[in-house]
Amino acid sequence: MVNYLIRKMLFCSLCVVLAASAQADTVKVKGQVMDVMIFASNYQSYSSSDVGLANIYIDSPEMKSPCESGATSGRIAISSDHPLFESVVSMAFIAKTTGKKVEMWHTGTCTLRSSSWDFALIKFAE
Question: Keyword annotations for this protein (predicted)?
């Protein structure tokens, strides 16, 4: 019984450590959605097979210039092939029109666009 409890405690401790390390790579920002821009990944020419992108602009002192790009406004990008794309864009539009603040997390990387953080999570702050 004691061995079982020790193994259970070690397993729980490992889960806590893994969960903390998974969140350590994300950055949380809290603020107002100032704008939402939606466009194709290759917006210079039309293609119906392009991936759509949404940039969500957040007014937050925690928002840094994406990937040292020198961009003057902080923004987080999500692509239309992301399973939560429609939900995230809907929440961003609701936050913008109502003035509600959001908390957004980004991954700390800029793989979708060199001047936009990659999306991780969104929730209403209020």
Answer: Signal
For residue range 12-48, list pLDDT tens digits in order: 444 344 344 444 589 999 999 999 999 998 878 888 8
Domain ranges of the chain: 27-124
State the DSSP string of 78-94. Answer: EETTSTTHHHHHHHHHH
Class of domain 27-124: mainly beta
Cα gap 86→75, rounded to integer Å: 17
Asked if 14 and 7 count as a contact pair (C-beta separation under 8 A), the reply is: no
- Nearest alpha carbon to residue 31 among 53, 71, 63, 66: 63
